[in-house]
Amino acid sequence: xxxxxxxxxxxxxxxxxxxxxxxxxxxxxxxxxxxxxxxxxxxxxxxxxxxxxxxxxxxxxxxxxxxxxxxxxxxxxxxxxxxxxxxxxxxxxxxxxxxxxxxxxxxxxxxxxxxxxxxxxxxxxxxxxxxxxxxxxxxxxxxxxxxxxxxxxxxxxxxxxxxxxxxxxxxxxxxxxxxxxxxxxxxxxxxxxxxxxxxxxxxxxxxxxxxxxxxxxxxxxxxxxxxxxxxxxxxxxxxxxxxxxxxxxxxxxxxxxxxxxxxxxxx
Length: 267
Hints:
- This protein is α+β, with helices and mostly antiparallel strands.
- The chain has five helices and ten strands.
- It is globular and about 50 Å long.
- The model is unreliable at 1-46 (pLDDT under 50).
């Protein structure tokens, strides 16, 4: 008869649960709540101001509202759930946009019509006409469904623009769009105000979000009138473009925080 092991004390079990919760503080957990014909799922253990790899609360982070993922249609899986081969986001894409932080003045022009932005307005972010034309045709070729966008300006003059582009499947985003828009060393299409962009080697590796490919670039010195930072996320069937700029220089910490929180909402 195999030896019997005495059960662990209740206090020890509780301590282990607390330890595991602390170690998982960066994870976005899905919480299913049945309500009528919809299912809501929230972000668990994610502080609105925290980004893994940043050390203190006084390092320039913005104060974002509490982040909660929007409802899923009844019976629909999350984007990275088993059985969702297309890694599709079934929640309303407009509700997956990161909300503006405290003190921000929203750029209402990015709301578009009923929350959907025209492709030409997104392409206006890019400097060269030939780039806009090539990118527009690429979006048509790979079956762009729609674009949701949000933007704001902070009291210090930092401007943020977030664009979520949705396609048919994750394969389209990964194999066709992401590989065209971004290279390892620099983006393919020049963003307005950034004569040059290089890979951001200082973006915290600990800020990675499971299932999402992130690439970040920064405009190197000497800047023009402003510095531009660029973030690109391949998140299932959604490709996100996140831009931040400010006259003089654009602080790294709010950019890293914004990109990471948007990735967590899409994860």
